[in-house]
Amino acid sequence: MEKFYITTAIDYVNGAPHIGHAYEKILTDVIARHFSQRTDDMFFLTGTDEHGIKIQKTAAANGITPKELCDENAQKFKDAWKALDIDYNKFIRTTDDYHEKAVQKIFNKLLEKGDIYKHSYEGLYCTGCECFLNPKDLTEDGLCPDHLKKPEVIKEENYFFKLSKYKDAIIKHIKENPDFIVPAFRANEVLNQLEDIQDISVSRAKSNVQWGIDVLSDAEQSIYVWIDALSNYITALGYDTEKEPEDFKKYWPADVQVIGKDILKFHSIYWPAFLMALDLPLPKHILAHGWITIDETKMSKSLGNVISPTSVLETFELKEPDAFRYYMATSAPCGRDGNYSDDDFKEKVNAHLANSMGNLLNRTLSMLVKYFDGVVQPKNLSLVDGANELLKKALGTVKIVENHFNHFEVAEAAQEITGLVDTANKFVTDNAPWTLAKEGKIDECAQVLTTVMEVMCIVSAMIYPYCPNIAKNMARQLSFDLSVKLDDLTADNIKVGKLISKEDITPVFLRVDSELADKSAKK
After folding, report:
1. Is the dihedral of CA 95, 99, 104, 108 positive or negative?
2. Is 126 a catalytic residue?
3. Is 285 tagged catalytic?
4. Residue 157: strand, helix, or coil
5. Is residue 456 scored above 70 in pLDDT?
6. pTM, whole model, 2 decimals?
C-alpha cells in the first residue's frame, strides 16, 4: 500500500464538541492508525466548518464577532482531540486564508464552465441542514425530519450548481462501484434521493448571510456551505484549480472519507458532482457511520444528555483515553447506531481490557518471574499441546483483522482480537503452568508462558489503533517492537534471556472501579 488518505467531516463550530463528534474522530483515528501499520505514507485530515448563518447569529447573540466565536470553539475541538489522542496530520479551518482563496477559484472555475448559474428561487430552507428542503421530505407537521423544526420560506436570487447535470454519472458510479458507499445498504438510500435531485443553491445573498466567502465577481453574494465545506478535502492538500501540488498528486483521491449518516447525501451526491465538474477523481470510499445515543436516548440539549468528549475521562478519573477510545470504537457494527452508558462502559472495558487482556499479560509475566526469574527459556513448542495451533491462530487473526479494516469494520475487527485473547486465556487454563511447575515439568511450563507472550506481542500490535497507550505498555514489558508492520508480524518476537523483573511488571489497565485505579488516578 503506497499511501492512505483518510478524512473526517469537518465539525461545525457553532458549539462545543460532544460525544458524537468524538465517536467519528475516534473511529477515524483507529482506522488511520491501523493503516499506518500497513503503509509508510498516511495522511489524516480533520478540521472545522466555520461559515454560515448559525455562526453569524450565535456570535451576534454573544456580542462577539463570528471569527472570535470560531477561534474560541475551534480550539475546543483541538483540545478535545488532543485529550483523546486523535493523531491527525492536518487540522483545516474553513476560515484559513488559503482555503478561502482556493474556494473562490473553484467557484469561478465552475461559473466559467457554465455549471454555476444565477437564479431567483423561493423555497423551504432549514438552517440546521443548511440547505433547501423538498416539501415531500418534511414530516406530516411540515417539520425538517432531522431537526424537527419548521423550515423558513426564503426567496432570493442565488447562484445554483447544475447538480442535475451529473445525476446519471453519479448513479452509474454508485452502481458500478458497490463499495463506494459503506456500508452497502446505504447506497439504495442515495439512489432513491437521486431520482428527483434538483440543482442546488451554492450562494446566499449578503443581505441575509454576511459570514461567508465572497463571490469574487459579485459583491452581493457569499459562497455558501457546500462548495466551501466539501472542498476542504482537496484544499487541505493545496488544490486551487491553478496548481496540483505534490501533496495533492500524492494523496488524492482519498481512500476513505468518514462522515455521519445524516450528511451522506451531501458527500455521495453533491461532492461527487463537484469533483466531476472539476475533472477530478472521486474518493474510493464514503464511510457513513451511525449515531451515538445516550442511555438509548438521542442526544438533546433540551433533555440535558449531551456529553462532552472528555467528561467520561473526568468521571472515571482516567489519565489516558484508551478505555474510552476502545469503548466508542467498538460501540456499533459498521454503519449502525451505537449507544453510550456509564454502566456499559465500565462493564465492557473492565471485562475486555482489565480482566481478559490485562490480567492475561500480568499473570503470565508474574509466573515468568516467579518460576524463571524473568528469564525466557529456549523454545520447544512440541512440548505443549496446542501451542503451535494457538500461534497459527494468532497470525491468522492478523489477516482477519486486516480484512475487516479493508471494509472499515472496526468493531468487528476488535471482536476478533478479544476472541484471540479469550483463546489464549483458555490455553493457560487448560495447560495450568502453575501445576506444571509444581510437578517439576519446568520445560513445559516455560513453553506455555512463552507461547502466551508471543500471542500478546501480536495482540499488542492489533490493539494499538484502539488503545495506543495500553499497547505501548504491553510492548514495553514484552520488549516487543511495536513499529513492525502488520504484514511482517511473526510468532518469534520473544528473545531467549532476561526479559523482565518483578518491579517492571505493571497492570496495563486497572479496572475503572478498583481501589487501585482510584488511588492511581488521584496521585
Report:
1. negative
2. yes
3. no
4. strand
5. yes
6. 0.93
